[in-house]
């Protein structure tokens, strides 16, 4: 008997049956939408996607184009340890609520949508990277939350790219207080030496470029500490991809 339906058609049928049972929800408010990953008309304008022109290294948006590979003032004055950083969204009231429900509200089902947005924002970094790894949670926090939201994003990003997913590439050497309790300088101190490369991965990272994944970038202290730890163990370069980032208008080089 010949195949009446192609595999793709069967998959599509399966998906539409699933959609009928569990209609896809807007990743921000949960309102029913017509396809997975689509935002509802109310939420679409409240989310602020980051787009070009950007600083070539730290990815901070410029108000107008400064030419290809232009750098912001901060990166010219003191280049960060990572090679490139990109984020999908501005961290604002709407994305904050979305991230909080992802982190604490059992909305791990939204990871594939967020990962797709991040892949779009970080397509250049993906091309340059060989391994994908998340910023780790300390085990005590992992028990409380049940999952590491950055690990879910990392796995969604690695999917279909051929990049090696190294979920436990980095480990926390100590529990740190929440970064929210500190000033910019305090945050740097709080995470200094808090990350190490997992000994299991040490023989496999020499000369590699790693794409580090996190949910929110605030001052960058956490990803910088992770980057330094990777570079100290033989990694050639680190790129960083986050779902959201805080953008301080004062730090824009305009
Ligand atoms: Zn919505
Ligand atoms: Zn910059």
Which key phrases capture this entry?
single chain; 254 residues; alpha/beta; Rossmann fold; 5-stranded parallel sheet; two-stranded antiparallel ribbon; 9 helices; 7 strands; globular; disordered C terminus; binds zinc ion
Number of domains: 2
Query: Strand-residue fraction?
Result: 5-15%
Q: What is CATH's topology name of the largest domain?
A: Rossmann fold
Uncertain stretches of 5 or more adjacent residues? 250-254
Strand elements, count: 7
Tell me the name of the CATH class of the largest domain. Alpha Beta
Major sheet, described briefly? Answer: 5 strands, parallel
Indicate the overall shape: globular
The CATH architecture category of the largest domain equals: 3-Layer(aba) Sandwich
The succession of helices and strands, N to C, reads: HHEHHHEHHEEHEEHE
Give the count of helical stretches: 9
Distance between the termini: 67 Å
Side-by-side strand order of the widest sheet:
1-7-6-2-3
What structural class do the secondary elements suggest?
alpha/beta
The bound ligands are: zinc ion
Q: Mean of residue pLDDT?
A: 87
């Amino acid at each position: 008997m010949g195949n009446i339906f192609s595999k793709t058609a069967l998959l599509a049928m399966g998906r539409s049956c699933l959609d009928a049972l569990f209609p896809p929800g807007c990743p921000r408010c949960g309102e029913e939408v017509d396809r997975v990953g689509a935002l509802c008309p109310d939420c679409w304008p409240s989310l602020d996607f980051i787009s070009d022109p950007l600083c070539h290294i730290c990815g901070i948006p410029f108000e107008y184009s400064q030419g290809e590979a232009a750098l912001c003032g901060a990166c010219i004055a003191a280049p960060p340890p990572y090679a490139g950083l990109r984020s999908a969204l501005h961290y604002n009231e709407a994305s904050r609520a979305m991230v909080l429900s992802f982190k604490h509200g059992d909305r791990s089902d939204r990871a594939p949508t967020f990962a797709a947005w991040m892949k779009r924002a970080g397509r250049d970094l993906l091309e340059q990277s060989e391994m994908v790894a998340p910023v780790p949670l300390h085990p005590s926090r992992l028990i409380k939350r049940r999952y590491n939201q950055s690990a879910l994003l990392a796995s969604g990003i690695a999917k279909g790219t051929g990049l090696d997913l190294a979920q436990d590439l980095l480990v926390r050497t100590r529990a740190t207080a929440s970064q929210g309790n500190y000033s910019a300088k305090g945050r740097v101190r709080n995470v200094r030496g808090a990350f190490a490369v997992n000994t299991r991965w040490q023989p496999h990272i020499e000369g590699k470029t790693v794409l580090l994944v996190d949910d929110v970038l605030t001052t960058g202290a956490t990803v910088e500490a992770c980057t330094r730890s990777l570079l100290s163990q033989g990694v050639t370069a680190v790129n960083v991809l986050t779902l959201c980032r805080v953008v301080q208008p004062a730090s824009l080089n305009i």
